[in-house]
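FAQ: What does a multi-protein file look like?

Like this. Sequence, then tokens, then the next protein.
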Amino acid sequence: MSTEARDTAPTEETPEDRYLAMQRSPEFGNLRKSFRGFVFPMTVAFFVWYALYVILSAYARDFMSIRIGGSHINVALIFGLLQFVSTFLIAWLYARYANRKVDPLADQINEELGEVSRDESPRG
């Protein structure tokens, strides 16, 4: 081990330092909060909806086998198709939410980091 005094001259800020500083900033915290504010509740809602479908299919077979309108279509088929509909609906809702709430915060952080100017941004 060396007991020499370390050089305490100010060093040039590295890109890693800038990223770490931005990660600790309130702006980045707002970005994470905005993202999580949509993703976590929607994930829980979709999981509950999917679990309901699975549980009803396993334990409520009489209900799930009810035919709709006298055709070969039953409640289970409708619920299964609604799984696809809800997946696309969530994706569409997230795209709208991200465009309104998440992307402007991310663009602001990008500009502050000096990585992407508004003119070079693929969205701008």
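And here is the next protein:
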Amino acid sequence: MILGEVVGRVWSEREVDGLGGARMVVVRDPESGAKRVAVDLLDAGTGTTVLVATDEAAAAVTGRSCVDAAVVALVAGWDSP
């Protein structure tokens, strides 16, 4: 899982049938700055800290085999080391 911040939305011009109009967001890893696109199951807004499931966990939670990243929690806060 990845803790990240939603930095924007993604709109597709065309998509595979497996995505079925899913809402997609860009999530940035605050430590590395790396960005990834994730299916947004919770309607997270820009600036929201989220938990992203990846790989098989993302496919399982969405029920869509083509998904490899999915927002699964909105994070209210956390303790940093």
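Q: Is there any per-entry metadata?
A: Some entries carry free-text notes. For the entry above: The first strand starts at residue 2 and ends at 10.
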